[in-house]
User: Fold this.
Amino acid sequence: MKRLWVPVFALFLLAGGSRATAQDKILNFGALEPVSAEAARAQAEAWLKDIGKTDAGTRERFEAIWQKNDTTVLDRVTATIVMADSAAAKLLADARDAAIPAPTKVPEILRNEKASAFFRANLGLAYARALSNRRVHEEALEVLKTFKADQVVEPAAYLFHRAVAEHALLNKSEASKTIIRLLEDAVSSPERYKTVSALMLLDMQAWKDKDLGSIARKMENIERRLDLARGGPQTQKLQKEVIARLDEIIKELENKAKKKPNPGPGGS
Assistant:
């Protein structure tokens, strides 16, 4: 399973997927490498200093966070932000709590241009990841669009969760571009990201407009939105599209039945 993404990605390319040129690969190689633990720790420490969190208690908690080698760099950066900023801590706690209604817009804390890019981008990624785990794909994608992959400590995580949102929202073109970038540019991304992303690409190759599969995907999206208590105009629009397409299919079948030759008396 570890190397499954390679043949799956190759199948996608053979099916007509995009391939970067050799020159593009040379230019982009290493462009989306993850930030090392040492560099991320230095960035986190500089951020704490910038916001005036230099007391002994903060320093002790900071050291405890960065001594945990069994967690990802993004998790350690997130833990640092949560430890030092109560508003950020509440934002992530609410995002992870299924009992709290899903957000309907990007939080102001992530739009505050006075805050450092390090803070906004990495908190935004952690927030989008939490929303993605709850299948709140619309706002997860909206948040991720407020910054870029190269602004976070784990660019592969950014691209993966963006691709998941775009795939779930049936944005085939956007999802394909994001996945291609993950597979070709984020060369150090975890194997699980590569495997799932390649499988999403393969899945989208079979998508067709207005077939029963398309209807099923829209119905699944409607169900997801209703589970999130989102029965508003957008969900109603999707419901109308599904009903309209089902009506078209029924009429097409009826017309075919009418055109079918009648065998007449004694016919079989």
DSSP finds 13 helices and no strands in the chain. Confidence is low (pLDDT under 50) at residues 1-30.
